[in-house]
Design goal:
2 copies of one chain form a homodimer. Chain A is an all-alpha fold. Chain A contains 9 helices and no strands. In chain A, helix 1 packs across helix 4. Chain A binds a DNA duplex through helix 1 and helix 3.
Amino acid sequence: MSVDQEKTSPRRQARGERRIAQLLEAAANVFCTTGYTASSTNAIAREAGVSPGTLYQFFPNKEAIAIELGDRLIHQMRETTGEALAAVDPSTPLEEAIGTLVDRFTAFSCQHPVFFALMHGPDIPGRLTEEHDALHAHLLGQVEALIAAFLPGAPAADVTRTAHLCLGLYKAGLELVLSHEGSERDAYVRELKNVLIRYLEPLLTEYRATADLTTTRTP
Amino acid sequence: MSVDQEKTSPRRQARGERRIAQLLEAAANVFCTTGYTASSTNAIAREAGVSPGTLYQFFPNKEAIAIELGDRLIHQMRETTGEALAAVDPSTPLEEAIGTLVDRFTAFSCQHPVFFALMHGPDIPGRLTEEHDALHAHLLGQVEALIAAFLPGAPAADVTRTAHLCLGLYKAGLELVLSHEGSERDAYVRELKNVLIRYLEPLLTEYRATADLTTTRTP
DNA sequence: GCGAAACGCGAGCGATCTCTCGTGTTTGCC
DNA sequence: GGCAAACACGAGAGATCGCTCGCGTTTCGC
């Protein structure tokens, strides 16, 4: 298990690891401004201050650069969202739960703008699409579980649809948040929270009404 | 005014007009599945069943194909949205107004899936970006006017932000609507309406409360 | 029916992009 | 110090794409 941490890769020196990090950072910048397809490997190498040959010393092809970059971002995203979602207590008010979730999620996206650019472009390589779909499915499952915790007994199809809506609405809000700065950005974060709260609140009160009805009916 | 309806274009025969329509339809298909940048002009010509040379008989370059296609779609979109938004009466219930607007907008997008693909890709040509931005600004202005009609006296910055949110939320919902079919699609349309209604309703009641307060204060 | 112009073809030019290769340099280990 | 391996270079091979050009075909006005 400890031998060869990567599949059939040459033994890396510290210098190589630094180059890889340097190349990935350059790739993030280039992808962010140009998009995946339109970005050339020569441009990435130039941005990193190395020759095209050096780039291919560490990555077999262009797709592998995006894959590695995406893998690292997805891994960080999974950790961030996992921690944030697991920390939610269904007995707390909905407003508070959504507030902290949106704050943590937006903080991550603001720190890694390339994540949004890479994952939502129409021209990303197939492998990354699969991994992003997996992340999205994972996230969807967690949100579904959370919604089910707030609304126990709701039909599965409705829970799934609501979870899809929540993620979609968050993405739309995030786009607006990322395209503004300073106090205006904060205002959009506030509005995004309002959207989610107002969309979900009625479901909660509706559920409680029917639950009360059931308990009074069966004493 | 009646002479040369296009700038310095050769006199078109009926056959040429048919070829143009045929090429634009082929381009719509190819753009829809491959995206703009990744689509090759040879692929478009092949899809249309003509030679690359024939394609360049009618379009000076690849960008012009996307421009012409985008222009026609944007024109149709402007007409559709213009009619729909102008027909809204601020005295009707919010629920009804949003219901008809969402229905009309989604109907258009379902009929022209390439519109969504062309306008929201990160790799579209500059000219189209400008026109899409113009369309978006136009749409934003109309939505702002509508919101201002429902909420007279609200601060301009808030109205603008709310309009941005509405368009963004609609876009997010549309994506979910387009990715489903049949009854599930209908369910997402219903939920999209709910999102918008629940987001906007509190603004309305809040405004009315302050308006009542003002009127009682100044008899 | 005849001439001009619009239409149609497809090989291929030039530019660009990904990726390779031969060679030279630096690093880790004895 | 010396050797093997990792690192670095950059010219260019090979492939693709946008677009052109020369020539043959169809259509229109007269």
